[in-house]
Amino acid sequence: MERQGPPLGPYRATKLWNEVTTSFRVGMPLRKHRQHLKKYSNCFTAVEAVDWLYDLLRSNSNFGPEVTRQQTIQLLRKFLKNHVIEDIKGRWGSESLDDNNQLFRFPATSPLKTFPQRHTEIKKTNTEYFSKNKDGIFKLRNLSQKTSKKRGLHFSQENTEKINHERITNEDLEIAPDNQEISQEDVEEVWRYVIMIYLQTILSLPSIEELLNPNQVIPQYIMYNMANTSKHGVVILQDKSDDLPHWVLSAMKCLANWPRSNDTNNLTYVGFERDVFKTIADYFLNLPEPLLTFEYYELFVNILGLLQPHLERVAINALQLCCLLLPPPNRRKLQLLMRMISRMSQNVDMPKLHEEIGTRSLMINTFSRCVLCCAEEVDLDELLASRLVSFLMDHHQEILQVPTYLQAAVEKHLDYIKKGNVKNHGDGLVVPLPTYSYCKQISAKEFDEQKISTSQAAIAELLENIVRSKSLPLKEKRRKLKQFQKEYPLIYQKRFPTTESEAALFDDKPTIKQPMLNLRNPKLHSLRY
């Protein structure tokens, strides 16, 4: 579970469900329990199941260490509803499971889910699409031979800066007649072609059609998202009716810049920031569909399987391209939301927005479902969405910026076609593609050291911000550190391995108080003179 996951492809959420349920069924310890003066064998308590499954999910790279105990309980309730488990009397179908000593067991039936019969229809649609466009400038190439050699590869750090020019041969393109004038439709088809080629190469798939129907790629969206941005890289909408309402933008700016908001001059009150946050959350939770849209659900869920220490660069570049596919209003909302929750999570001056959980966990739990979810209910939706939002928070500046190499690739395509350099099927076409390097094999110990996610690094950075803050009163700093220690004990212990190191932060020096009574035996003097 820790190093492997289901292969990339359609219905990855269903495959993950089958993997988790199988691992739970195989690994969950069973023993005898007594309840109401009666013994039951081969069963387990709810609290034992929560403990075991909680550790399993946190060690799985598809879900990560930010999985909460409450999310684990929710998943066990879905297990009970789908007859993965049943109570000791054989009852199932409801979600009546709590973190207590109620007894459960495994049924005799298989908990695995079957895959819908939809994939063949998608492939048929893709075939019809490419047959219809056969006489265009090009057709989407099949990279099965090239990508099969590139499995296990990952991006180097310089891949977006140093572009390697590869040649695409006659099997990759069908060229139009000489000196054909380039129409707007042709330009749009080039954008569609280039971005699908890149995604297929990055994800090392035999065919991108398994995840992405070409009809789902809207070139106008990509071109708009690339060209219409502010100096901070945020999409600028021409039609303001598609933008966030002014009151939502003001509320988001207020919390993102707290307490230095320049947009709010009104007097605040106790609990003001909680009311503002609730206003923002209500708006996003009531959107008609998630920001990443229903149709791209499979695409983003598959990228979640790259979220491992040695494939982090691949995930960032794949998400960068996938977010370009979004309608401009969705991309703008996603950019502004990620900027806000990222700033709030790192702001040590942000008042407590929830009595029990920290700001970062609250951001993830609140907004995950409005960022990613399936049109049809999927049992792992919440966990998968939380994992993706956590990664987006930590890398949103890079993921949501415009990739300049994509523009260069499109311009190279169009330039060669316009100049008539490609005259027949035997000629090639120069296209820039990312630089790849082979993965270095590492030991198990090195892997364990690298598997600490960037989210944990961000949490550790938050702790440092609290420690180094000079604006926090000493009493408030103690309170925040105590809260941090309760929520993230391992990270806290790593920062303060001994009580002495913790005491040094506050310059706690033991003070020696003078005894109030002199305990020495006084010399007895005679009362007689």
Overview of this protein structure:
The protein has 529 residues and is of the alpha+beta class. Among the domains are: 12-105, Arc Repressor Mutant, subunit A, CATH 1.10.10.10; 185-407, Rho GTPase activation protein (Phosphatidylinositol 3-kinase, Chain A); 453-503, no CATH class. It is 47% helix and 6% strand. It contains 20 helices and eight strands. It has helices spanning 12-27, 46-58, 69-81, 119-132, 144-149, 184-202, 219-227, 246-256, 272-285, 297-304, 312-322, 328-346, 359-371, 381-399, 404-418, 444-450, 454-468, 474-487, 489-495, 499-505; strands at 31-35, 38-45, 86-87, 103-105, 153-155, 164-168, 429-433, 436-438. The strands form three sheets. Strands 1-2-4-3 form a four-stranded antiparallel β-sheet. Strands 5-8 form a two-stranded antiparallel ribbon. Strands 6-7 form a two-stranded antiparallel ribbon. A hairpin with a 2-residue loop joins β1 and β2. α6 crosses α7, α8 runs parallel beside α12 and α18 (474-487) packs across α19. The longest helix has 19 residues, at 184-202. The protein is globular, with a radius of gyration of 29 Å. The termini are far apart. Residues 117-177 and 422-439 have low confidence and may be disordered.
What's this entry about, in short?
The chain has 529 residues and is of the alpha+beta class.
